[in-house]
Amino acid sequence: MAEERTERTERTERRGRRDGGGRGRRGKRNEDAQEVREKPEFEERVVHISRNSKVVKGGRRFSFGALVVVGDGKGRVGYGLGKAAEVSEAIRKAGDTAKRNMMSVTMRGTTLPHDALGKFSGAQVLIRPASEGTGIIAGGPCRAVLELAGVRDVLAKSLGSNNHLNVTKATLKALSKLRSKQEALAIRKG
């Protein structure tokens, strides 16, 4: 019995399978994966990817545009548009642009201080505060902006155009109109 076991272990050692030998990285664990990864400062969300084609002599040449919304979930949000020959590059460019175009959002607890209507081109977005526990009732680009801004309870309705970029811009415009009670009183007093 002992002879049989040693013979089997010799065979596996020769093959080098048990101790991670052999071809490739199969079965090997990355020791660095044990470390706890830091959470990134901003969360990115791809709202829309568009494909454009240009007809050239040899056929069609495609390029991609990406609309990305970036936010920290604590009242800062921004959007970016990136264009490139590859999707991943377009998303990276859009993310960089979004981080440069951040704006802060006025909030009251988990919701908004008051109603606001944002208009951009053909898109209109109406946002309203909601009672705690309601959640985010919004669709598409509007939802992405509100979630990443850190608003937890809100009602939103997109009116007019459903173009992703215009709805995103209209939502950000509506958020920029928000004022806290103190800010509104200060403006009135002059």
The spatial strand order of the largest sheet comes to 1-2-3-4
Q: Any idea what the radius of gyration is?
A: 26 Å
Low-confidence stretches are: none
- With helices defined by DSSP (H or I, 4 residues minimum), what is the helix count? 5
Please, what is the average pLDDT? 86
The number of E-state strands comes to 8
Categorize the overall geometry.
Answer: globular
- Major sheet size, sense and barrel closure: 4 strands, antiparallel
Find the structural class using helix and strand composition.
Answer: alpha+beta
Q: How much helical structure, as a percent, in the residues?
A: 25-40%
- Tell me what portion of residues adopts beta-strand conformation: 25-35%
Element pattern in H and E: HEEEHEEEEHEHH
Give the N-to-C terminal Cα separation: 96 Å
Q: What's the layout of helices and strands?
A:
Blueprint: H1 2-15, E1 43-56, E2 59-71, E3 76-84, H2 87-100, E4 102-104, E5 116-120, E6 123-129, E7 136-137, H3 140-149, E8 154-160, H4 164-176, H5 181-189
What would you say this structure looks like, in words?
This protein is α+β, with helices and mostly antiparallel strands and 190 residues long. 32% of the residues lie in helices and 32% in strands. The strands form two sheets. A four-stranded antiparallel β-sheet has the order 1-2-3-4. It has a four-stranded mixed β-sheet with strand order 5-6-8-7. The radius of gyration is 26 Å and the shape is globular. It starts with a helix and ends with a helix.
